[in-house]
Amino acid sequence: MGQPAAPLTERNYVAPLVLVTSLFFLWALGVNLNDVLIPHLKKAFHLTDFRSSLIQTAFFGGYFLAALPAGRIMERIGYKRGIVLGLLIGAMGTILFVPAASVRVYGFFLFALFVMACGQSFLEVGANPYVIILGPPGSSERRLNLAQSFNSVGAALTPGIGAAFILTNEEYSPAQLAAMTPRQIEAYQIAEASTVRGPYLAITCVFLLVALMIYFARLPEIHEPSDSKTPDTSQPRWSAVLAHPRLGKGVIAPFFYVGAQVGVASFIIRFVQHTSPGTSEKLAANYLKFHLLGFMIGRFAGSAVMKIISAPRLLSIFAAGALISILLAISTSGLAPIWAVVFIGFFHSIMFPTIFALSIKGLGSYTKRGSSLLVMSIIGGAMIPALMGYISDASSIQRAFIVPLACYVYVLYFALRGYRPGAVDQARGTVPVGVEAR
């Protein structure tokens, strides 16, 4: 307190930071369209809540499986070429939506999402630590939160895109479907499946365009600094990476946070329709828009407030806010639970970039592998929504929101104590200036 805040970045890093920040906007489209795909494909293929949640399982399973290879590959080819490779893999996944819509096989959609997520895993592994090292260590959390703010802009725009181009007003009750002929049902399924072609074809073009821009851009290949006690090798040992207690606790935090974020957003439309019977999916999608608008506002506001409030303290405040909101969502009725779920979006906003920056700080030559582990922990986005879907089928969607409540408890613990450097970090001299070592 009382010391001037570190500058956001250095003059020679402004252009690379702007270009890499554009990636955060881009992958928001892929992640957040899943929240529209879940109710849409649930209706088109007559799925249960559990089966529809497999969309997130396939997507975040791709993140998990690709993260470790992404880190190893980037150790060999660098951030720039690794990011370009990720964009090309992502484009392969999005173009697969065209044949998936033609054959109308649910498993084909899941495979396309899996391939797309593998590419986005490369982007996450590369872009997050790259933003962290594009400037002074003292402003790394603020810099990553600002970059992630543009991810939230994409997140806020995506439901509108999905509602306009994917969702339809054609909804039939089980009784109406039973009265339809097989030909009518087939025509209905063809119409519903075909709506995904246009949006994902457009995303393919954007992936390829950004890949070209990155390829021809002059991005500095920055090597992470290392201290004298930490050997700077091209093949860092996993035992040394995992010896950092702060990283170990940090890897658990994104598992719970991403699981809660994805689980809440995935079922907002279903949650609204459950707590307010008779609401159409298009109208319910408006609450998803408000949820993600709050997410965007929180990101920009959080990045600004970090100039005066430390990142761990702000993370603890937002985690407590999410806990209170989720308690209201599961214990009240009427409009109160709906708006409580909407406000959770605001409290989600700073969690991932702050957890990421606090966990990876001071890793030196182990940064790429530490980043891989943190991205692998995003597998929570595959498991927790599936658990929520299972509970919803067995009980109710409102009761399923007990699962993210447990997730916020761990995030609050990490914000209060888990982020603090352990004895190993201090002994190795990896506690950067300005980080509390309590």
Detailed description of the structure:
The protein is mainly α and 438 residues long. It has a single domain (11-220, 238-427), classed as Growth Hormone, Chain: A, CATH 1.20.1250.20. The chain is built from 21 helices and no strands. The chain has helices at 14-45, 49-52, 54-95, 97-103, 106-133, 140-165, 174-179, 182-194, 197-216, 238-242, 245-266, 268-275, 281-305, 311-331, 335-348, 351-360, 367-376, 380-394, 397-400, 402-418, 423-427. Helix 5 packs antiparallel against helix 17, helix 6 runs antiparallel to helix 16 and helix 11 packs parallel to helix 17 (367-376). The longest helix has 42 residues, at 54-95. It is globular. The two termini are 16 Å apart.
